[in-house]
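Review form for a predicted model. The reviewer records the input and the model, then writes brief findings.
Reviewer: anonymous (R2)
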Amino acid sequence: PPARLVTALLGNVPGTFLNTVSMLASPAGFLGARWADLVGSMPDVRALHTHLLVERWTLDELPLTRHLFEDVVELLFRENRFMAGTLTIGGRNVAPAAVDAPVLSVIDAGSDLVPPSAVLPFHDAVGSSDKRVLWYEGDIGVALQHVGMLVGRRAHRHVWPKIMQWMHSHCELR
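Model under review:
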């Protein structure tokens, strides 16, 4: 449905609505993978603890303001204005080609929620010549894989040191 219909009914969009829509959009990622991760985490107390923390975090639902919800759904998702170079923010046209700052993209090759096919076109279209891709291979114990690159053990062991190294190499205060 049009985003304005949703916000006309709900006002600000509750987190429970967003969770429900996410589950409908990706039942494998938001239901099946979570249960599989729970079962896979059970032999490892640390992984199970992380899994349960992520599950608890998903209950900390804040509403999305109606205007932000409408803009994200209509302008970014349906009309794809940012990638098309037709998005205007604060009177300025914004597009990937206008991004001239260094860009680091961290991608989960196995994600169906944010698949590489959704990230790589942006990464390739960025105007900056200083861009890099880091691949995240997933973790047991993170419940939702798109959160794994933030909280997973493999992410902390392999991805975050590379992110910090990249940030340090781009820091002007070196």
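Findings: The two ends are 50 Å apart (CA to CA).
Further findings: Strands lie at 87-89, 92-94, 103-108, 131-136.
Recommendation: see findings above.
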